[in-house]
Amino acid sequence: MGLFSGVGVALVTIFDPDGKxxxxxxxxxxxxxxxxxxxxxxxxxxxGEAGKLTDDERTELLRAVRKAIPAGIPLLAGTxxxxxxxxxxLTKAALDAGADVMLAYPPPDYKDATELCAFHEAVxxxxxxxxxxxxxxxxxxxxxxxxxxxxxxxxxxIKDSSGSADRLLDELAHYTGSVYVGSSALxxxxxxxxxxxxxxxxxxxxxxxxxxxxxxDGGAQRxxxxxxxxxxxxxxxxxxxxxxxxxDYPATSRLP
Length: 256
Prior knowledge:
Blueprint: E1 6-10, H1 23-35, E2 41-43, H2 55-68, E3 75-78, H3 84-96, E4 101-104, H4 113-126, E5 132-136, E6 157-160, H5 165-174, E7 178-181, H6 187-190, E8 197-200, H7 207-214, H8 218-223, H9 225-246
Parallel strand pairs: 1-2, 1-8, 2-3, 3-4, 4-5, 5-6, 6-7, 7-8
Helix pairs in contact: 1-2, 3-4
């Protein structure tokens, strides 16, 4: 199993009211989203509050979600970290837990293109043949992944969460790998222009509308505006509040 086409979800991690990870509920949420059109599930990403999870919690979540979703749905694992060593360790653990694709942002403030390439080579080696996606998320890992460096990296594609229409256009025009948009503001641009897909936080609460927007429905894209802007301003904690209003999941977050 490898890469996918269409819209996938960057999954929230469900916590009990006391703050404990509820892997069973997280898996149940993932399965519901797949039944509503999601083509992949990302676990332990920034939306999943990965920086607040222990290594054992990350593994528990991956195993629970893999068990909960159909075998044909790719399970993506967030494995970026503060250093190459951390990312390699997370990648190996994710592989053992059943992940199909690795998504890794580079360590912040890496020195140059050579160091960026070495990082992705280390992650690719640790993934043992499973596909690796670069992750451009500059507010977590500055300066991110420059478009001009993409062809030289041992990756299958990139998730771009910058929200920049200019950068998205650059990627789709000049990079031959798979481009997945991470911003729910750009879906009706990314899909019609030939993007491979999307990996979205907002799909936790608006999966159907995200699919319509990626398919080019401008009305659906406008319909995402209120929720998109709320989540952009408030992050995973705000997303969980919105999810709690539409479900029986608690809004508990480990983030402020």
